[in-house]
Design a protein that fits this description.
This protein is of the alpha/beta class.
Length: about 600
């Protein structure tokens, strides 16, 4: 299969299911909700967006996820997964209160069933007994491969026939009548009949089916997700069931050897990645081509782990970056991939730290948001030394606002015990891995972007621990100073070069730490310059806010210094290329240089620079 086709793989696995859903249900009157954006590609094509599909994930094009702003056929946005059932239940209750008769269909995947919110919603749906259809799209993929002796889910003629019987209106009415008759004979008979029903369905149904029944959902399945006749037959029966409570239809859309349903790959349409073998992965990393910050981070962490047997990795989030396979293959017993169970990942890491290990909890910025309560209560408040590696920080290009990471600087730096840092290049990232491994008395985090590395280093070296809370001046100038935090420092250096064409020599400093701040460095910059510009690829409330808090309390703003922050704008930056997103956000080197020219009163030069 071509790499360029791979992003559509998950969408192809649910084509027949999507066709059957739209054949049976009347969207947009009937609400169809999807948990995963990748599974909604066929849905987009069938709902009037076929001619625009070539623009998906491009600037001003279709979103890679369902979007309320894009089509009336998308009643709810599919973001990080596990939200469709909760939102669908809310819509079902609103429908009942308003006296409407439309149907609610939610499509969840076996990946999103790893998140607790799905089971919370199922339990609530069972309690409310609201009429809705939940379709479990089972690609048969799991975090841990099944052993040879473990049963695998299969669909045969018997299960197909049984599913049709289960979904039929006559069978459901007979079952409800039997329940009513058992109640008439008394509580004891009713409980006995319920146990017999549960036992019988457990015997003929697949493993785990009774779990959904216990939560209050009527289970139907498994059904072959590629047999469109069976799908339509069952969904038609389900659609005619009024006032019978929530129904779960189990649809098998893949096998263990079918990679089309695998949503874990993070290879983008224009990237060429290594094969699955560790040898090919190492060869790919050694070429120095298309190397990312993730590649560099994993290499450094693997090197640290070779010398420190207490280092373990806990990974959370939707999809695992291919570079992590290097650590996983080197130390399989010290690697834990927990999928989108981020809350568990954080507290599990805290437990590992309490047991004397050195956990590196690797979670993309956007998915770390889900685990914030655990970060506060289970880690920071107790000063437990969990090391958070926050990947995909800042803007992420074609993935748009759903998978971008603009908020972590703000929500991590406000925690009293957390050390917060960010590298300006891959060499500093290596040093920060060593720094994090060294810290054992409090939690520490570092963020790094998704994209390619700057390219200052081509060979792996062991990191040197940094002095906590110390930045550096990279280039000295006069009158105006840029204080950058993270990879944006590279753009500050380019901005300095642009300003030199106008006869301006600016100072560029690398903060390295947001918390604790290098207050000596900030004092020096304020005392030796007339203007201080802080630059970060994060929202208001982050690094620049910490700097402004310090310089105002320290009385530095009472003097001659004038301070300006450059942060992401107070809006979501839609999907586009990374360069286009930076331009939309006003965070390119040209924007940084233009800000300096404007501060110096050279407005005409600023306009010329931006042309």
């Amino acid at each position: 299969m071509s790499r360029k086709c791979q992003p559509c793989g998950p969408g192809r696995s649910v084509v027949e299911l999507t066709i059957a859903i739209h054949y049976v249900f009347n969207a947009p009157m009937d609400k169809i909700l999807w948990d995963a954006g990748q599974h909604a590609y066929a849905h987009k094509i069938l709902t009037g967006r076929r001619t625009l599909f070539h623009t998906i994930k491009q600037k001003n094009g279709l979103s890679g996820f369902t979007s309320r702003f894009e089509s009336e056929y998308d009643p709810f946005g599919a973001g990080h997964g596990c939200n469709s059932l909760s939102a669908g239940l809310g819509m079902a209750v609103a429908r009942d209160i308003n006296g409407r008769k439309n149907r609610i269909v939610t499509v969840i995947s076996n990946w999103t069933t790893m998140a607790g919110q799905v089971y919370e919603a199922m339990g609530h749906a069972g309690f409310l007994d609201s009429n809705m259809v939940v379709i479990l799209n089972d690609s048969c993929h799991s975090l841990l491969p099944k052993g040879d002796g473990q049963p695998k889910m299969s669909v045969n003629g018997f299960s197909s026939t049984l599913s049709k019987i289960q979904s039929s209106k006559g069978f459901r009415r007979f079952r409800e009548a039997a329940k009513g008759l058992a109640k008439w004979f008394g509580k004891g008979m009713h409980e006995f009949a319920a146990k017999v029903d549960e036992y019988a369905r457990g015997m003929i149904g697949p493993h785990g089916a009774t779990l959904f029944e216990e939560l209050g959902l009527y289970y139907i399945g498994p059904i072959d997700g590629h047999n469109i006749d069976d799908l339509i037959c069952v969904l038609k029966e389900v659609a005619t069931l009024d006032s019978t409570g929530p129904v779960l239809v189990h649809v098998i859309t893949g096998t263990e050897n079918d990679t089309d349903g695998n949503i874990r790959s993070e290879i983008t349409p224009n990237e060429e990645g290594p094969s699955n073998s560790n040898h090919d992965l190492l060869k790919f990393l050694e070429t120095g081509l298309s190397r990312t910050y993730n590649d560099c981070f994993v290499e450094a962490l693997t090197a640290e782990a070779e010398n420190d047997k207490r280092i373990v990795v806990v990974h959370g989030g939707m999809g695992m970056d291919r570079s992590l396979r290097l650590f996983q293959s080197s130390f399989p017993d010290r690697f834990f991939d927990l999928g989108i169970a981020e809350q568990h990942a954080v507290t599990f890491s805290a437990g590992l730290a309490c047991g004397g290990l050195k956990p590196f909890c690797i979670i993309p910025s956007t998915f770390l948001q889900r685990a914030y309560d655990q970060i506060v209560e289970d880690v920071d408040m107790q000063k437990i030394p969990v090391r958070f590696a926050i990947s995909n920080a800042g803007l992420v290009g074609s993935e748009g606002p759903t998978n971008s990471g603009p908020f972590d600087i703000t929500f991590m730096s406000c925690l009293p015990n957390m050390i917060v840092m960010s590298p300006s290049n891959e060499d500093e990232l290596i040093d920060m891995v060593a720094t994090a491994a060294m810290v054992e008395d409090r939690p520490i985090c570092f963020r790094y972007p998704r994209g390619a590395i700057v390219g200052t280093s081509s060979t792996l070296t062991y990191g040197n621990p940094l002095q906590i809370g110390k930045g550096e001046i990279l280039v000295e100038g006069k009158e105006i100073a840029f204080l950058g935090y993270g990879e944006v420092v590279q753009r500050c250096l380019i901005a300095r070069s642009l300003l030199s064409n106008f006869g301006i020599q600016a100072t560029v400093a690398n903060a390295r730490f947001c918390k604790p701040l290098d207050i000596d460095l900030i004092r020096t910059l304020c005392q030796q310059h007339s203007f201080l510009i802080t630059v970060e690829e994060g929202t208001v409330g982050g690094f620049g806010s910490h700097v402004s808090q310090f310089i105002s309390l320290d009385g530095l703003l009472d003097g001659r210094i004038k301070w300006r922050p450059i942060v992401l704008p107070d809006r979501y930056i839609e999907h586009a290329s990374l360069a286009e997103q930076l331009d939309l956000a006003g965070l390119t080197a040209h924007h940084i240089a233009a800000t300096a020219l404007t501060l110096l009163g050279r407005h005409r030069d600023a306009l010329l620079l931006m042309k």
